[in-house]
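Friendly challenge for the regulars: who can give me the structure tokens for this chain first? No prize, just bragging rights.
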Amino acid sequence: MGEWIGRGRKARRAYGFDEIAIVPGTVTINPNEVDVSWELGGLRFEMPIIAAAMDGVVDPDFSILMGKLGGLAILNLEGVWTRYEDPRDILTEIASATPERATELVQQLYQPPVREDLISRRVEYIKKAGVPAIVSSIPQRAERYGALAEEAGCDIFVVQSTVSTVRHLSTEYKTLDLYQFIANTKMKVMVGNCVTYETALEIMECKPAAVIIGIGPGAACTSRGVLGIGVPQVTATVDGAAARDKFYMRTGQYIPIITDGGMNVGGDICKAFASGADAVIVGSAFAKAKEAPGGGYHWGMATPHANLPRGTRIHVGTSGTLEEILYGPAHLDDGSQNLIGALRTCMGSVGAANIRELQRVELVIAPAIKTEGKIFQKAQRIGMGK
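First reply, four minutes later:
Bragging rights claimed.
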């Protein structure tokens, strides 16, 4: 498999969202009659789009609003909301910093230790609103933070790192026994991130509620530039879906895969599902919401890293309410609003009555899909040419 890239060395071709297109079907369906819901560990959600665990996107109030709209928004347990009693001034300071100063400032502002009492209080606050609470931490802190979150009533816990594996080796700190952690908690556990068939399959052996796919594609992430690692999201999702299907055939247990990052507009989200995703995690699209805590700014989870930042702060602006971004009405023509409407219309156009059927549609390699015939939009910087 693969093609020669030099003497004695082959590499496999991989594809991203801009390089493929979905082929319309021979049957079409009324978009209002398709089913966009999905299931996670026995819990059913009205929409398959999750807000990323980034401080410029999700705060406790945003998590509540997302829950009331039928989705999930992940609160980062190592972000500003567990380090400060009221971090709104901190968020304003980050948003008002110059680009040259932003990363250094974020590093400084994330130095205060996480307060365990705030972990409990944030989860309790979300649960009091009557919506599912979903939070995240890195593997090294998952046992402690997970216990606090579970005691406070948390529903879903995300063990998330730049690269997740079952077999993590270290002599400097205790590594997480992923199998035991999942087995010993009542919470649904999502694990990520990974991009290969083998790793996804190995994580599934630990029986998580879902596996998260994607390394480095996020708008605010710089891991691909800093570390040189990653696999374009279409190929990573297809491989993850193959692992899911293999695991299901062998065990009868269906473990969803969630594509994380690289999706800026409705078309990208549709392609993620067509590549095999059961749900998606997006950040920058929601950072544009009026209710997002970043005030039109967005930064990656690894931006504050004290020694090797792998993210940056970007300006995305504020374009509308969260409800407009999710359900419309869209006031922009670039696909960044009414994401659920875009998903429904795509499903109707290809004859997919539900997400499982959308996963099986025909795809074509189409590197000109965004530029073909769009010369005026590109020249005038409108529509798809923005």
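Residues 204 and 210 are 8 Å apart (CA to CA). The two ends are 37 Å apart (CA to CA). Your move, everyone else.
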